[in-house]
Amino acid sequence: MERPYIFCHMQVSLDGKIMGKFMDLPESKGSGKLFYDLAFGEDAHYKHQGWISGRTTTDDNFTHYKVPVLDELAAEVPAGDFFVESEHDKYYISFDRSGKLGWEKNTITYGKTTATVLEVLTEKVSNSYKAFLRDLNIPYIICGDESIDLDMVLEKLSRDFNMDLVMLGGGGVINWSFIQAGLCDEISFVVSPTADGSTETASVFDAMAGLTNDDPVAFTVKAVEVREDNAVWMRYTVNNAR
Ligand SMILES: NC(=O)c1ccc[n+]([C@@H]2O[C@H](COP(=O)([O-])OP(=O)(O)OC[C@H]3O[C@@H](n4cnc5c(N)ncnc54)[C@H](OP(=O)(O)O)[C@@H]3O)[C@@H](O)[C@H]2O)c1
After folding, report:
1. Region 212-240: what's the mean pLDDT?
2. Are residues 44 and 74 in the same domain?
């Protein structure tokens, strides 16, 4: 299968967390900046064409759990995927298997980066939600019947969007689904010299009942660098990548 190279890039606390109070400490700032610069900065190490995000990450950061207002009487949309011309050099690849996200426009802005939203849906998503996306000029690809077929997503990103480098950008649930499927090539963790010990917050990898299990996976060290402000950049290859 033709697919992009996938790297999982995350800012992580010393206790393996990806959100929470550790981020509020001034000692976390350096790792936050390094995280951004490596994948989104002007002289980025990873020059990717898009980043994949889980539905919770999108709601927490961009759509804020707004319920989309749908027209149940919308005319039947054409079958298949929906493409639009993008003005931006990156896509924000949003996993939304049921069509829940309350988008208000077809771009997101993260730091100095603006990206076109690309929704990844399944066949079970309603006609009215697809019509809602079309009204906002939000492109979508349909990958799978009830659950998202990860191979099909990557094949379409390669074939229809010419992507050869894609960031797997969290959270922990979506990261683990790609790793369990053998579809993540590299791990890039920017470790913050902070922790908060919370048992309530998302970890960098989280299995989710019905989606993934806890089959162990091994990694091989590629590089470790100590950077400014006690941030450590750790890279691994994923041993089960196929
Ligand atoms: N520190 C960092 O670098 C960083 C980076 C990214 C995110 N985060 C944080 O991580 C937190 C969220 O992480 P999380 O692990 O709870 O959630 P997540 O991975 O963002 O989202 C999980 C949801 O995404 C959908 N999903 C995931 N895998 C899927 C698959 N294989 N197929 C179809 N749908 C799939 C499911 O939603 P549905 O069932 O509703 O469709 C699932 O419940 C956020 O607070 C965010 O800010 C931190």
Report:
1. 98
2. no
Pocket flag, ligand 1, residue 57 (CB < 6 Å): yes
Q: Is 177 in the pocket of ligand 1 (CB under 6 A)?
A: yes
Question: What is the tens place of the pLDDT at every residue in 147-189?
Answer: 999 999 999 999 999 999 999 999 999 999 999 999 999 999 9
The response to whether residue 22 sits with its C-beta less than 6 Å from ligand 1 reads no
- CATH number of the domain that 182 lies in? 3.40.430.10
Q: Please count the CA atoms within 13 angstroms of the CA of 105 that sit on its side-chain side.
A: 7
Q: Does residue 95 have its Cβ closer than 6 Å to ligand 1? A: yes
Q: What is the pLDDT of residue 1?
A: 83
Local structure of 55: helix, strand or coil = helix
Looking only at Cα atoms, what is the longest distance across the chain?
Answer: 57
Percentage of residues of the chain with pLDDT beyond 90: 100
pTM: 0.98
Nearest Cα to Cα of residue 138 among 58, 29, 211, 21: 58
The Cα 174–Cα 231 span in angstroms is 24
Q: Ligand 1 centroid vs 16 CA: distance in angstroms? A: 15
Tell whether 64 and 9 lie within a shared domain.
no
Q: pLDDT tens digits for 18-38?
A: 999 999 999 999 999 999 999
What is the residue whose two structure tokens read 């379409």?
156
Q: Are residues 54 and 152 in the same domain?
A: yes
Atom of ligand 1 nearest to the CA of 206: 15
**Co-location of 104 and 145 in the same domain:** yes
Note whether 61 and 151 are same-domain residues: yes
Ligand 1, atom 47, residue with closest C-alpha:
57
Q: Is the pLDDT of residue 130 over 90?
A: yes
CA of 52 to the centre of ligand 1 (A): 10
Ligand 1 centroid to 42 CA: how many Å?
Answer: 27
